[in-house]
């Protein structure tokens, strides 16, 4: 006989009950459920939508939600140095650990060197006007929370605790050279 025990967890926000179990992964990337908990409100049912944005570029996206409402979004994508400069909101976020991680209350971005010659990205045309590509040299991890744990300050603290180990776990799964 198998007995299933469903634990009801209480959130830090308003005492609303969670009648679901917080997963220990996001898009197949291992993550400590305690670090993900602040971004998930109370509710009955948890769902996760995973998809690959572009099979040739290896970009992935994932949404974690509660009771039919999106709560935590993750996007990972290949880039080159030009894309990192334009996509990472360096001037808008709080830098962590030498500047590879940036947080604001509801968002976090991480980027790191990760060469992958199999992923080709569009580049400016050559002098003769022909299209060209370059290999991916960086990977960008973007996380967006649609749920505030308490207030903006607490949300940013939670994002800081989440992004560094999560981005490191993403990197371990990538074919970086």
How would you explain this protein's 3D organization?
With 177 residues, the chain is α+β, with helices and mostly antiparallel strands. It is built from three helices and eleven strands; from the N terminus they run E-E-E-E-H-E-E-E-H-E-E-E-E-H. The strands form three sheets. It has a seven-stranded antiparallel sheet with strand order 5-6-7-11-10-9-8. A two-stranded antiparallel ribbon has the order 1-2. Strands 3-4 form a two-stranded antiparallel sheet. Strand 1 (9-10) and strand 2 form a beta hairpin. The longest helix has 22 residues, at 152-173. It is elongated. The protein starts with 8 loop residues before the first strand and ends with a helix. Mean pLDDT is 79; it is low at 1-15.
Characterize the quaternary organization of these chains: single chain
Encode the helix/strand succession as letters. Answer: EEEEHEEEHEEEEH
| CA gyration radius, whole angstroms | 18 Å
Can you count the helices?
A: 3
Strand content of the residues, in percent? 35-45%
- Distance between termini? 49 Å
């Amino acid at each position: 006989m198998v007995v299933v025990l469903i634990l009801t967890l209480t959130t830090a926000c308003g005492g609303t009950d969670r009648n679901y179990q917080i997963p220990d992964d996001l898009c197949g990337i291992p993550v400590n459920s305690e670090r993900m908990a602040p971004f998930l409100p109370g509710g009955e049912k948890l769902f996760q939508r995973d998809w690959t944005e572009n099979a040739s570029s290896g970009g992935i996206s994932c949404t974690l939600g509660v009771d039919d409402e999106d709560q935590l979004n993750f996007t990972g994508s290949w880039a080159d140095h030009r894309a990192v400069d334009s996509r990472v909101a360096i001037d808008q976020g709080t830098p962590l650990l030498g500047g590879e991680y940036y947080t604001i209350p509801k968002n976090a971005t991480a980027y790191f060197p990760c060469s992958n010659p199999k992923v080709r990205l569009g580049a400016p045309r050559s002098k003769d006007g022909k299209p060209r590509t370059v290999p991916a040299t960086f990977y960008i991890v973007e996380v967006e929370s649609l749920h505030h744990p308490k207030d903006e300050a607490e949300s940013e603290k939670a994002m800081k605790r989440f992004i560094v180990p999560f981005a490191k776990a993403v990197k371990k799964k990538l074919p970086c050279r």
